[in-house]
Amino acid sequence: MPVYEYSCPTCKSTFEELRPMSRHADVAQCPTCGSQGRKKLSVFAINRDLLVDTVPVTAGGGGCACGGGCACGA
Ligand SMILES: [Zn+2]
């Protein structure tokens, strides 16, 4: 079961909740003050976003056409 991170808008604390993926959007009760916490972006989601930003877009969309401009060795 994945762990989700939540932040409390009332006391500004962050906490984690273990719950099924199907319930990840549910509100989580803050253990400090009892307010409803809001789900934060998971580390995984943040990493994936960074990855998308840094992966170069391949011209033509089909990968290497081997015209000599790539490093595939052919
Ligand atoms: Zn709180």
Nutshell version of this structure?
By secondary structure, this protein is an alpha+beta fold.
Describe what this molecule looks like in 3D.
The protein is an alpha+beta fold and 74 residues long. It has one helix at 43-54; strands at residues 3-7, 14-18, 28-29, 36-39. Bound molecules: zinc ion. Residues 8, 10-11, 13, 30, 32-33, 35 line the site of zinc ion (ZN).
Please give the structural blueprint.
Elements (H helix, E strand, L loop, with lengths): L2 E5 L6 E5 L9 E2 L6 E4 L3 H12 L20
Bound molecules: zinc ion.
Low-confidence stretches: none
Could you tell me which ligands this complex binds, including any ions or cofactors?
Answer: zinc ion
Largest sheet: 4 strands, antiparallel
What order do the SSEs take from the amino end to the carboxyl end, as H and E?
EEEEH
What's the structural domain tally? Answer: 1
Cα-atom radius of gyration: 21 Å
Distance between the termini: 45 Å
Beta strand %? 15-25%
- What would you call the structural class? alpha+beta
Q: Order of strands across the widest beta sheet?
A: 2-1-4-3
Helical content class: 10-25%
Number of strands: 4
Could you tell me the mean pLDDT?
A: 77
Give the count of helical stretches.
1
Envelope shape: rod-shaped
